[in-house]
Amino acid sequence: MSQRRQEARRAERERRRQQRREQRMGQRQVSAVPAGAGVGAAARPRAAGRVGRRRLPWIIAGVAAGVVLAVGAAFVVRAQMEPLPGQKFPTNGNAHVLPGEAHGAYFSNPPTSGWHYDSVPAPSSEAYTEPLPPEALPHFMEHGGVWVLYRPDASDTIKQQLKAIVDKYLARKKPVALAPYPPAGYPLPEHPINVIAWQYLLGLDSVDQKKIEDFIERHACRYTPEGTGAGNGCPRGVVRGQTAPPVDAGEGGFKVPVPTVAPQTPAAAGPATPAAVGPTPPAATATPAR
Prior knowledge:
By secondary structure, the chain is an alpha+beta fold. It is 37% helix and 8% strand.
């Protein structure tokens, strides 16, 4: 056999051995991969996508809730830092007086604290059809109440607008009451509409719903040393100086005429209509309603 044929046979045998080696290497690589690995590898991205899509609404809801909480907290902090609406007056104290009993001058007209009758008015937008005297007002404010007052000569439109505002807060169990003020013969306040809480007065020349509602929101149940006695739902507050002695505003204050009897202001459980009181000279005193 010629040398050329021998070399050709050796080359063919080497080529076949190389093919067999490559086949064996391929089989070992296939056996090293777990069964179904190809299917799982392809399925994993799809499964991850489904999980991500399921989580997305929860992530969005969580972010939205965080934003709402942050905005709410910022609003509360801002409200607490902002000054209370209305003009603040010094306190005249918390003294009770009997009908016909003389007392000192108030710091404001209508009064925002000071001498008052011992009857507790009730939250209402309808019970007070007759003008209330100054002494009928402070006790309600001791129970966290807010008065919305208008001059007796106010138009029906003004009365209806104020009644709508008060009724809105009465429906929410807020301690708010609407009444004409003052009786005939008493000095008129500077403004025809007055919204008052303990030591604060908001005087308006026309119905400003936003300002009135802001005043009610901020002042209702703010000062409550006597708690829920008026059936207003306010918690009893711990207020320093709640038994402060009376303070006379002096010559520059609001000095009222001395009434003869206490008005029959509706108490928490009674819808009686208060009677008008005029600035006539003192007569025999009557026992205040309790």
